Amino acid sequence: MSAAASPRMGSIDALRGLTVAAMLLVNNPGDWNHVYAPLLHADWHGFTPTDLIFPLFLFIAGVSMAFSLAPRAGDASLRPALRSGLLQRALRILLAGALLHLLAWWLVELPAYRLWGVLQRIALCVAVVGLLAIYTRARTQWWVIGVLLAAYAAILLGADSLAPWVNPASRLDTALFAPFLYKYDPVSGLGHDPEGLLSSLGALATTLLGLRAGAALRAGQVGGLAVLAAACLTLGGVASLWLPLNKHLWTPSFVLWSGGLSVTALLLAHLLIDRWGAPALGRRFGVNAIAAYLGSSAMALVLGASGAWAWAFTALAAAMPAAPARASLLCALGFVAVWWGVVWALDGRRIYLKI
Asked: Where does the chain have alpha helices with state H?
């Protein structure tokens, strides 16, 4: 096997970029009390298009490793260097997430510093799945996906309740990390973090599924991707009869359902962009993905703490008093447009900020 990484595919950069742009859109409404309805997550059980965004990003991270790590890992002499580079990158992402939460804790005056988060989960998934990409074969990776889903399903099915605050994931996170969680009630002693420890089992399975889909894409197995998408959607739908679709808990049914949709998105992007020559919309966000997410998150915190964000929403809402949700959407779209300009300028100067 060649020791060189496979060439970049426009479909992967484009899909990653569109996912990051969607992250910015849903994370930055003009006002959280007037969110445009299609941009809302499911309150608890259920699935909305917005719930696909984060798993799709982790899935694409796995796909990318099938091109950047797996081909070179065939040469055993390169594995130590690959492992070192992988773990250093994961550590940098982890530290970036920790610093972002430190900024949030300081600017917003949160009651407690939050340990877990989006970037922290990305770092964990990149590290674990990257090591599997370097040191294991396809059969082992499929086995790990199966074990993760089966073990997590057994934990959830054996629980007394999957309700908010009292489900196994929330209980474990509260026992280990309270009060440093996304939500914590000191009176009841209950807490919850949607990017906590136990639910990361599902997130790891999502990223591994991306690794295997990426391997199929690298091998040109378009039919295999179609079969994988259909299998995941069918299994996810059946599994949801026992374990509901739930992004907060990242349930096994959610892994399979969102995984099937992610494989479908990858297949369509590959056909449209790589094979039929359609424009790689979103590529500029894709080649500066983590930097755009981190920079935009810091910017949003500063705008919020300074009152500028509230002023912008108030001005728009005053211009359309009958449609505050539309004003909120326009704020979000404007924020994405600003960052589209940033990544456009960076790409035009061939500046690619890697973490």
From this structure: 10-27, 53-68, 70-73, 79-108, 118-135, 138-157, 168-177, 200-218, 222-239, 252-269, 283-286, 289-306, 308-319, 324-348
In a domain, 288, yes or no: no
Q: Over the stretch 107-128, which tens digit does the pLDDT of each residue have?
A: 988 889 999 999 999 999 999 9
Cα-flanking dihedrals φ and ψ of residue 182, to 5°?
Answer: -60, -45
Asked whether residue 239 is domain-assigned, the answer is: yes
- The total domain count for the chain is 1
| DSSP-based three-state secondary structure for 247 | coil
CA-to-CA distance for 167 and 175, rounded, in angstroms?
12
| CA distances for 113 relative to 110, 118, 176, 183, angstroms | 7, 15, 14, 11
pLDDT in tens, 297-339: 999 999 999 999 999 999 999 998 889 999 999 999 999 999 9
Helix axes 308-319 and 289-306, enclosed angle (nearest 10): 80
Give, rounded to a whole angstrom, the gap between the first and last alpha carbons of the chain.
28
What's the pLDDT tens digit per position in 194-224? 999 999 999 999 999 999 999 999 999 999 9
Domain assignment of residue 15, yes or no: no
Q: What is the largest CA-CA distance in the chain?
A: 65
Would you say 124 and 200 are in contact if contact means Cβ atoms under 8 Å apart? yes
Q: Does residue 338 sit within a domain?
A: no
User: 93: domain range?
Assistant: 45-282
Q: Half-sphere exposure of 154 toward its Cβ, with a 13 Å CA cutoff?
A: 5
